[in-house]
Write a structure and sequence with these properties.
There is one protein chain. The chain is mainly β. It has two domains: 126 residues, no CATH class; 185 residues. The chain is 1% helix and 64% strand. The chain is built from one helix and 34 strands. The strands form three sheets. It has an 18-stranded parallel sheet that branches. A hairpin with a 6-residue loop joins strand 17 and strand 18. The longest helix has 5 residues. The termini are far apart.
């Protein structure tokens, strides 16, 4: 393996002073290469490319307003960017199979991450971490796009602070934005998409077959939008301590499942499933929550979670607990099943079952 290490520190300045506005360009061709570019200061830029297999490319930046762009073409390559400070921009592109792309920003405000992968069996992840939560932490944006089969946002998207945005777009078959699951339980033990703070947004679009997504949002005024088209998809999500949270889910195809929970006040959930043999399991707890559920097709099911850690009625029925909650559920088609329960005062439920129009 050939290893190249570049360190840019205090270029054009006196000793002990960080450099400014330095630019590093790197190009490598071949197999088994490894390169690390390190920059300290402000407004630095890295542009690096590798062509070949089993290569590794890293960028380390500390300061403000830096940019890093990595391009890897080939198979079994790894690209990673680490930045500390504020206002960083990361771009990683991989072309080929079994490649990995990771981005991490720490203690930052307003980072922007874009990861694009084309091929099969690729992995991606993005983390934007803050020293502490508060009004001056957050504003991060992460966008991951994967085209091909059996790709995964495996190490997840982790964002802290306020007004963060996470977007995932996957096209192909058997891709995942996944959480780990306890065998025999419907509740994931670890969410790969994690947003902590207020006014965050999560947007995912999956097309193909056998996709999965698991995520959690903690805070107020958060929003989640999920669209899955195809067959055999699985969605698991939780919104906790989430006043005024909004969740919108659309699944179209055959045999899709959506499991969701909301805990808080004044939350809104909208779930639409078009096709056959779909399944929805949900729970809302708190006050003045609302859920609108539409299932169109044959053999669809709306019910609660199945776990021995919950009372019997919770296992059987989807559930709203609290005061002033509202449910509007519609099932169109043959052989559909709906199990639902409400606990509290001033709740309303409107349920419609009938033939396809």
């Amino acid at each position: 393996m050939k290893t190249l290490f570049l360190s840019l520190l205090a270029l054009g300045a006196g000793g002990g002073v960080w450099g400014q506005s330095n630019t590093s360009s790197l190009s490598q061709t071949g197999n088994g290469n490894a390169s690390i570019v390190e920059q300290l200061g402000t407004a630095h830029a890295v542009s690096a490319t590798q062509l070949g297999d089993r290569n590794r490319l890293e960028s380390h930046q500390m300061g403000q307003g830096t940019t890093a762009s990595l391009l890897l073409t080939g198979n079994d390559n790894t690209a990673s960017i680490w930045s500390g400070g504020t206002g960083h921009q990361h771009t990683i592109t991989t072309l080929g199979n079994a490649n990995q792309a990771y981005s991490t920003t720490y203690g930052t405000l307003g980072s922007e991450v874009r990861i694009s992968q084309t091929g099969n069996n690729n992995l991606a992840g993005a983390n934007s971490l803050s020293y502490f939560l508060g009004p001056n932490r957050g504003g991060h944006q992460a966008s991951i796009s994967q085209t091909g089969n059996q790709n995964s946002v495996w190490s997840g998207i982790h964002q802290e602070g306020e007004a963060n945005v996470a977007r995932v777009n996957q096209t192909g078959d058997r891709n995942s934005v996944s959480g780990l699951r306890i065998p025999g339980s419907d509740h994931p033990t670890e969410y790969r998409i994690f947003q902590l703070g207020s006014a965050n947004t999560f947007d995912v679009n999956q097309q193909g077959t056998g996709h999965s997504v698991g995520f959690a949002q903690y805070g107020e005024n958060n929003a989640a939008r999920i669209e899955q088209t195809g067959e055999g998809h699985l969605l698991t999500f939780t919104q906790v301590y989430a006043r005024n949270a909004v969740a919108s889910v659309t699944q179209e195809g055959v045999g899709n499942k959506a499991f969701f929970e909301q805990f808080g006040e004044n939350q809104t959930a909208s779930l639409t499933q078009l096709g056959t043999t779909h399944e929805i399991r949900f729970q809302q707890s708190g006050a003045d929550n609302s859920a609108t559920i539409w299932q169109e097709g044959n053999g669809n099911v709306l019910k609660g979670f199945e776990s021995t850690t919950y009372p019997f009625d919770y296992q059987q029925f989807s559930k709203q607990s609290g005061t002033g909650n509202a449910l509007q559920a519609t099932q169109r088609g043959d052989g559909n099943v709906l199990r639902f329960g409400q606990t509290g005062n001033g709740n309303t439920a409107t349920i419609t079952q009938g033939p396809l129009n």
